[in-house]
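seq as requested:
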Amino acid sequence: MKASFIIYCRAVGLYALLSLPALVIPLMYILSLYYVLTFGWLAWIAFTVLYIIIDNLVFDFVPKLMVLFVAVVIAVAFAYYMLGIIIIRDDIWHTGFIAFPFAAVIAGWISVCISKERIRSSCYEPETSSPATNAH
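struct tokens:
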């Protein structure tokens, strides 16, 4: 769970950087950051659940990484959808703000890539020596 929280926190920071062009309209940038901080915890919960499930499955590194990329998309889509239900109360997928979840997905993907060594180490269980093999 710690790894998923680190990935999430890093992704929020990366999102703030990736969405800097929205500062052309400062209110839009501030509002997008507010929504990320308000609804991002829903993405974190969804990603954490998926991360725990994926982490407990026996995958090699590349398939696990690919599945985590999909988990990022699912988590961001869930949070964005909940934003539409709770705040907008309309179909959020057909608005002009669709670029923001794409920035969030890219930030999440970058964050997962930065955590690749931790993910790689979870793919291969360290071999433990049994007392029978140590006895001579």
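Residues 62 and 120 are 9 Å apart (CA to CA).
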